[in-house]
Amino acid sequence: MGNIMELIKTINVDYLIKYARIIIIILVFQLASPIISRLIINILHKITKSKKKPTESGYYTPMKYFFYILGFYICIYHLGTTMGIKKLANKIMKIITIILFTKGTADSITPNCFIFTIISKEKYESNGNEALNLFLSKVLRVVVYIISIFVIMYELDFDLNGLAAGLGIGSAAIALAAQDLVKSLLGGFSIITDKPFEIGDYIEIGDYNGTVVDITFRSTRIRAANNSIITIPNSLITTEYIINWNKLESRMIQTKLRISLNSGIEQINRCISKIGTVLKVNEIVKEDSVQVHLEDIMSDCNTIFIRAYVNVVDYNDFLVAKDKIYCDILSVLERENIELVYPTQLVYTKSKD
Is 215 exposed, middle or buried (0-12, 13-18, 19+ CB in 10 A)? Predict the structure, then answer.
């Protein structure tokens, strides 16, 4: 018992209290950081009229870590450390704060953030241009990270004037090396502003065609019919013709029927009339666009020309509609006993005699 009392007497009560306070401070900040973060973000959401949950905010996680680290930062001062350690702690805390703020800001810059929502409503009076918002959000995130890097370099006492001079000397070489990149960036901005196509459109660019899946600074990605992804530089897109099949109001069906010479004129006239009727009564066919007539008289067949426009834009729906229309046309030929003929060719051989 006496040994225990002597051990207790040797313990410095002030140190125990000090370290107990440190542990309490760390625990309090660990427990309170999610609550404080939610409270601050809720206030920000009320100001910006955001309907997101606090945990969905880009600032939630960085802010939570900020309060975690703030607890340790306060403990360093509470320990009564030297001035050198305090200065080092100040610098580290500033850099961590800059990094966390940058991360939160960059994660909060999305195509659906309140800034783009306000701009879109004022400028477009609608939900805005999603592709433009996506493009600008990427640009803004890059700008935020660049500014953050320069601020951190300033805090680490880097000579920014010397850095600027170095960049000036190397700017010519950088400009030459980045010509294609700059062309692609300008091309991407042109695509976003002119809007020849948007994400989800089925387009044809030169020898390539597919559905647009992404528009970035440098390139546009389309998904081809075989499900492969084709990446096309924006600089190339601005110099090529672009066909946007999603901008169609209707699609054209056109074909030629090569019918047998054995078909009489009455059969041909009935066939032309009935094909025209079949097309006009079809609800997806534009009635005033139907054209059916005898186009040509050839040595091996007579040719009937057929053209019509259908009120179908989606390519898969168009294939289904075209399939049904062609089956209806074949049914008319079958009822009228008119045969289709294949292209023929006469071959003359020279006799040895």
Answer: buried
Return all residues near 241 (Cβ < 8 A) that are at least 6 apart.
205, 206
What integer is the mean pLDDT of 27-51?
83
Q: 100-134: b or e for each residue (b if 16 or more CB lie within 10 Å)?
A: bbbbbbbbbbebebbebbeebeeeeeeebbebbbb
DSSP letters along 102-166, please?
A: HHHHHHH--TTSHHHHHHHHHHHSSS--HHHHHHHHHHHHHHHHHHHHHHHHHHTT--HHHHHHH
CA neighbours within 13 Å on the CB side: how many for 21? 13
Is pTM, for the whole model, over 0.90? no
Interior angle at CA 237, CA 235 and CA 242, nearest 5: 160
DSSP conformation class of 350: -
Higher confidence at residue 93 or residue 124? 93
Contact 218, 181 (CB under 8 A): yes
Beta bridge partners of 223: 211, 229
- Indicate the range of 48-57, 101-110, 228-237 predicted with least confidence: 48-57
Which is it for strands 202-205 and 242-244: parallel, antiparallel or unpaired? antiparallel
**pLDDT score for 40:** 87
* Cα–Cα distance measured from residue 216 to residue 47, given in angstroms and rounded to the nearest whole number: 32
Tell me if 339 sits within 8 A of 259, measured CB to CB: yes
Question: Any idea how long the chain is?
Answer: 353
| Distance between CA atoms of residues 136 and 162, nearest Å | 31
- What 3-state DSSP class applies to 2? helix
- Please give the residue that has the higher pLDDT: either 2 or 266: 266
User: For the chain, first and last CA: distance in Å?
Assistant: 139
Q: What is the pLDDT of residues 284-301, one digit of tens each?
A: 999 889 999 999 888 888
Ramachandran angles phi, psi of 303, nearest 5°: -115, 125
Tell me what pLDDT residue 45 has. Answer: 78
